[in-house]
């Protein structure tokens, strides 16, 4: 079958399996120690990049649909997924499938619920689907030059914006950093998310005050400078503060 | 017509007007200077309290549907509505309409998108609809004793939780307080949202540091104590910081 036949065939199955008009898009962030990147699929039929996404089965809720979609694309389980926004504009997707019959499932109006996840990119072997020719990490600062479908660039920006807000009151880093890390490495992550450099002294003071760090009796060896101390997350406190929020008031 | 006929009649119109499976619920918070309250409707047909809610017209997006629903219940326009979560569990609403025919619109599965709004309760004259016998403010600490429909108590809790998180990085108070207010009055609002008392010195220092307050050359007269200074919001800064967030890092 060529991809057009596959899509038409999928459409028939979709009417039986899924709740109409609802879709899920996932923004999966990874961090290479320096920059944030996001997982995208390149579709064969129009050479555009898509977020990993799909539909909600009649027996699922949105979160289980998002977890299933994430697992299909990354083989990852037990990843924390955070719903961040709903995208409900008219004519979001209709144009993309303009060459297809009007009763095509994909051509209907879809209200898409966005979830983001933070993953360790080393744990992920991205897997495309039958409609995509590749599934790849794209650095955030390369998105500008890519042909990205529909409103998916806007969805990524909204996810990043939510992440920026959430690091004001939630700990972050557990899935994005290796188990042991230095304070400069943690600062790099915050700077990559915020898109700006931070004052080192302020950052160290504030991050230590939150109470999620455990200093190890080890140093990162091998650099030209004084070997920096290694830290790990105090998991008990990390999850407690993830639940209750960082106290600002 | 009795309410059962009205519901069945509405169901027919709904199939023509709205996108199936998608609904909107709004959590409208008010503040009386001491406690937070929320706007609820009491339904004639089962005597349960409901959040103001409705469906999305085929030509609307979710935000315009939420604004329309809010206007219908409160006559308020130009209110800032914030989407905060989606509720997609199975069997959310089916039980509520168990005595109705199976093809009833309201009995279908609905994925509901929650919006919250903060309003000045003095500006609002709550208006019920043809199915409700009243539309009233209920104080948060009275919710426990009320018969609240479906998952609407969970929706209110989630909205309140989001509000608690958002006051870590967004200014708040513009629609909840009178134009001129004292610092003790502003602190009361934060305490009502957080559900705990705050240290006065810390609160004053932090709230002044954000840069959204303008001290007026007036005092609140009439109390037994020294007349406290009146403040107002510096609207330019308020909206700038609402847009960019309070810098924590």
TrEMBL record, chains A, B:
- State the organism of origin: Cloacibacterium rupense
Q: What is this protein's record name?
A: DNA mismatch repair protein MutT
The Nudix hydrolase domain sits at 19-164
Taxonomy, top ranks, is:
Bacteria, Pseudomonadati, Bacteroidota, Flavobacteriia, Flavobacteriales
The record's PROSITE patterns line, in alphabetical order, gives:
NUDIX (PS51462)
